[in-house]
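As promised in the previous annual report, we have extended the structural survey to additional targets. Below is the entry for Flavin reductase family protein.
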Amino acid sequence: MDDRTFRNAMGRFATGVTIVTTQVGDDTHGMTANAFMSVSLDPKLVTISIDHNARMYERIKASGQFAVSILTDEQKEVSMHFAGQKDDPSVVEFDYISGIPVIRDALAAVVCNVAESFEVGDHTLFIGQVLEIKLTDGNPLAFFEGKYGSYQPV
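The corresponding structure token record, generated without further manual editing, is:
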């Protein structure tokens, strides 16, 4: 199978939209991602998958920490900014939890120390030990077949 067929098949899995953030020195860095999942309740662990060519890869390795902000359906512009689809920094507002930047008013912000990392193909799986969580009310931003949408309960 070719790369396009694989990408099309993976795009048929509807996901939420997250922004992965970290802090290196005084510099805040973020990227849009949907490769995020919970791993364990005891201990509380999550994982993110980061391409080795992404700037975030080296930044998480340097900081040893990251946060995942799960976006609301009102934060599409924030996602597009961090995905490089729109250059509008005015749409981004950060809060800081334990010194790690998170997206203000996200549905959830999960702050982690890197517990382990595993190189798998052209990505690294960063396993995060959850330090803190902040929750906010709202509806999730969804992503399906390369398009943004909203969750509609059935």
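The chain has one domain: 16-140. Helices lie at 3-10, 55-63, 76-82. These points will be discussed at the next consortium meeting with the crystallography subgroup.
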